[in-house]
Amino acid sequence: MSKAYDRINQMDRVIQVRVDGASSKPVAVKSGVPQGWVIRPTLFLIYANDIANLVRCKIVLFADDIKLWASISPSKGCVLLQEDLNALYDRSLRNKLPFNFQK
Fold it and tell me: Is residue 56 situated within a structural domain?
């Protein structure tokens, strides 16, 4: 998935820098995982929780990476694998977590 943690909706977050008692103007934060905020990966897991239920192939999930594989026959297996890829892709778009095809 493409920068999955950065795609989770984040609202009303700002950062401000303080040095020697002087503060910068607040700046809106639109992406990124807040340091020290352990709930962010959990929120992503809620988004991705049922991904394994969408596919018939074997699947492994680690962080924001997904691996599909299947032992296939040339005639039927390619169709099965493509249907699973299509289902995952459609769901990723609905949840605003698009695939990163470069990975």
Answer: yes
The pLDDT score that the predictor gives to residue 87 is 92
Helices (H), ranges, the chain: 4-7, 39-48, 51-54, 77-94
What distance in Å separates the CA atoms of residue 1 and residue 64, rounded to the nearest whole number?
6
Domain span holding position 11: 4-94
pLDDT of residue 71: 81
In a domain, 77, yes or no: yes
- Is the residue at 103 inside a domain? no
DSSP reduced 3-state for 13: coil
Report the domain count for the chain: 1
Alpha carbon distance 7, 102 (integer Å): 17
Q: How many CA atoms lie within 13 A of 28 on its CB side?
A: 4
**Tens digit of pLDDT for each residue in 4-60?**
555 555 567 888 888 888 999 988 877 665 666 677 677 777 777 788 888 888 888
